[in-house]
Amino acid sequence: MNLLFVCSENRLRSPTAEEVFSKYPGVSTIGAGTNADAETTVSGDLIEWADVVLVMEKSHRNKISKKYKEQLKGKRLVCLDIPDIYARMDPDLVKLLEARVKRYVRF
Predict the structure, then answer these.
(1) Contacting residues for 44 by C-beta, under 8 A, at least 6 apart
(2) How far apart are CA 67 and CA 96, in angstroms?
């Protein structure tokens, strides 16, 4: 299963999610950001690669929905509603990610 995690800058939330869920058997992960200066910028190729696209905020979902409408056909696009208040690998962020992602993805 290929999971794409998206936040704004790809520096805190999505890299944390990428690291946490990459340890799950049978799961491949990539983190990306919606901003032009993100570490890895979300692209049509990444959307096509993903089985599930998990965004951190509604603004990310809106940007991706508009820009990648064609690539999203047949894909799950999920908003995790995780605000940008956590440091990378913050234990509270990890717990929140694990709880929220498991609502939408069966491992």
Answers:
(1) 68, 71
(2) 28
Q: What is the largest CA-CA distance in the chain?
A: 36
Mind listing the pLDDT tens digit for each residue in 10-24?
Answer: 999 999 999 999 999
- Please say whether the beta carbons of 49 and 2 come within 8 A: yes
Contact 11/33 with Cβ under 8 angstroms?
yes
Strand, helix or coil for residue 42: coil
3-state secondary structure of 36: coil
Distance CA 57, CA 44 (A): 19
> Considering the entire predicted model, what is its pTM?
0.97
Q: What is the pLDDT of residue 88?
A: 97
Element at 101 (helix H, strand E):
helix 91-104
Closest C-alpha to 81, from 95, 66, 102, 60: 60
Report residue 84's pLDDT band, with 50, 70 and 90 as the boundaries. very high
